[in-house]
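Hey, I'm writing a tutorial for new members on how sequence and structure tokens pair up, and I'd like a real worked example in the thread rather than a made-up one. If someone can provide the structure for the chain below, I'll link this post from the tutorial.
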Amino acid sequence: MIVNLAVRVLQFLFGAVVLVISVLLLKGYGPADPYTNLKAGHAPEEALMGFGTFCGGAGVIIAVIGAASAFLEPLQGLVILILDGVATFFLFAGGVAYAVKVGVGSCGDVRESYDNYIVKHAKLFLPFIYKHIVIDSKTQRYSADEAKTLEDTQGRCRMFQADTAFLWFMFATFAVTLTLTFFQKSGKRGGGIV
């Protein structure tokens, strides 16, 4: 029970981090001017960030229900097993979606070449207020306030990478509680879960 509660606390914390970062990315806050971002329209990957928000929120709620199930008999067993299973599935899907879209690279990579991680993912990382700024495909240079654009883009890049990492951390914690719940339930009456 202590291990289960400790993992539930981690789930809650990781879920809160994913929720906050995803909302900040979705609403255009974080690096860059938030008031201009709100007027600029939708994020380029709004569905991805919305799914991250869903995963974070659902993770927080299921973590609270899971912690409550340690003390409330009706929530133990099949109910929490199903919730943990659904959460594990959606978090795996979210982790894969973010990993595919964000990829692997250094947010500090400021080389001026086409294989630059930031340039490859400019549509995803570039803050909304700079969407009108074109990265020249021949010179790979920003066409406006380069220092501010690059700083804000690197900040959003780091936020996306943090969101991806915490989604995977949440997936791991839910996989642990799913396993613990399954073995706890199957050992109670000497039989498997029916």
